[in-house]
């Protein structure tokens, strides 16, 4: 039931693939995928991270066949088709992530499903990007995607496995489920309420997370605190400021429902673009309250062959 177990269950663990880890931090998930691959041939890892993280596990991969590359970039500016190794090798991509916060998940989905999928054969090129930061980046398209172009050209993404978190850090601008919200008569105003109330689901997290990471990650504490703002202020969490009747349990349940509603929009987005998508718990709540995994694979007719 682990993240790795789910990657394997979806037949995404094997040679001839490029694993793109979004919001990689120290790249631990890629590290464990690499270990599980047992020196499989022709495997590439791209670790996408905007922060200047200390890359403690990077050195450990030198002994394996796999090639690791770091891209220090904000996901919203990443265009995978411009990454030289992907341009050259045209490997099917597996998008992975562990605790990819809020809007970063939506950006990653757009990056895979819109900019990479739609452009990678060159047949359905997007218009020229509005601005480029480096030769690897462009502004990801925000408008509704052209469904037809994606149906015709879905080969490059073999699968997506992302452990979700921090829905309170989602935003309407990047959210991929806007069409779903609109289809059920909801809009930005309601989204903003759900996004804020989603933090109620993890209000007890502060203590658990702090305890769990104290010894192991003391070195990275600054980065953790800065980047993984599970720490919510009293206005969001405190019973003292909640509107009268709601108990802590009520708030937690409402928070969880808000998270699932936001995630449902993501599922609909993926399904409308030819993916079989699902949400599942990958670990116990006692281990992490952020224990939901978003998975997606192309619908059967569109499954890419690994490149050997
Ligand atoms: C909660 S941390 C998880 C880090 C790592 N995956 C782990 O499990 O330890 C989320 C990471 O996503 C990165 N991140 C958030 N938004 C991002 C974005 N738009 N582009 C690139 N990285 C982003 C943060 O810098 C942070 O390192």
UniProtKB/TrEMBL annotation:
GO molecular function terms listed in the Swiss-Prot or TrEMBL record: tRNA 2'-O-methyltransferase activity; zinc ion binding
Which UniProt keywords are present, listed alphabetically? Metal-binding, Methyltransferase, S-adenosyl-L-methionine, Transferase, tRNA processing, Zinc, Zinc-finger
User: Per the record's keyword annotation, is Zinc-finger included, yes or no?
Assistant: yes
Q: Where is the composition biased (Polar residues)?
A: 232-244
Q: Which residue range or ranges hold the Methyltransferase TRM13 domain? A: 1-296
> Which reaction is catalysed here?
adenosine(4) in tRNA(His) + S-adenosyl-L-methionine = 2'-O-methyladenosine(4) in tRNA(His) + S-adenosyl-L-homocysteine + H(+); cytidine(4) in tRNA(Pro) + S-adenosyl-L-methionine = 2'-O-methylcytidine(4) in tRNA(Pro) + S-adenosyl-L-homocysteine + H(+); cytidine(4) in tRNA(Gly)(GCC) + S-adenosyl-L-methionine = 2'-O-methylcytidine(4) in tRNA(Gly)(GCC) + S-adenosyl-L-homocysteine + H(+)
Identify the EC number(s).
2.1.1.225
Say which domain of life the source belongs to. Eukaryota
Compositional bias annotation for Basic and acidic residues: 221-231
Q: Does the keyword Methyltransferase apply?
A: yes
Record GO biological process: tRNA methylation
InterPro entries attached to this UniProt entry: Methyltransferase_TRM13, Trm13
Instruction: Give the region (Disordered) as residue ranges.
Output: 208-246
**Tell me, what does this protein do in biology?**
tRNA methylase which 2'-O-methylates cytidine(4) in tRNA(Pro) and tRNA(Gly)(GCC), and adenosine(4) in tRNA(His).
Q: Which family does it belong to?
A: Belongs to the methyltransferase TRM13 family.
Q: What is this protein called?
A: tRNA:m(4)X modification enzyme TRM13
């Amino acid at each position: 039931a682990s993240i790795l177990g789910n990657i394997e269950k979806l037949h995404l663990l094997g040679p001839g693939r490029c694993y793109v880890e979004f919001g990689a931090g120290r790249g631990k998930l890629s590290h464990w995928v690499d270990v599980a691959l047992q020196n499989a041939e022709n495997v590439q890892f791209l670790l996408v991270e905007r922060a200047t993280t200390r890359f403690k596990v990077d050195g450990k991969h030198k002994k394996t066949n796999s090639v690791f590359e770091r891209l220090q970039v904000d996901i919203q500016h990443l265009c995978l088709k411009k990454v030289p190794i992907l341009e050259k090798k045209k490997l099917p991509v597996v998008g992975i992530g562990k605790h990819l916060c809020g809007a970063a998940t939506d950006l990653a989905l757009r990056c895979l499903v819109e900019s990479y999928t739609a452009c990678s054969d060159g047949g359905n090129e997007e218009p020229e990007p509005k601005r480029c930061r480096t030769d690897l980046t462009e502004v990801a398209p925000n408008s509704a995607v052209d469904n037809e172009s994606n149906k015709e050209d879905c080969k490059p993404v073999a699968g997506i496995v992302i452990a979700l978190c921090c829905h309170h850090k989602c935003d309407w601008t990047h959210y991929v489920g806007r069409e779903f919200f609109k289809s059920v008569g909801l809009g930005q105003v309601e989204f903003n309420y759900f996004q804020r109330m989603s933090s109620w689901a993890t209000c007890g997290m502060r203590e658990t997370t702090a305890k769990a990471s104290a010894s192991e990650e003391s070195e990275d504490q600054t980065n953790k605190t800065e980047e993984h703002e599970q720490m919510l202020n009293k206005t969001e969490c405190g019973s003292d400021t909640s509107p009268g009747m709601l108990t802590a349990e009520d708030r937690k349940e409402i928070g969880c429902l808000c998270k699932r509603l936001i995630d449902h929009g993501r599922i609909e987005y993926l399904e409308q673009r030819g993916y079989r998508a699902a949400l599942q718990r990958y670990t116990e709540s006692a281990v992490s309250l952020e224990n939901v995994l978003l998975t997606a694979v192309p619908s059967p007719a569109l499954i890419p062959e690994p490149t050997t």
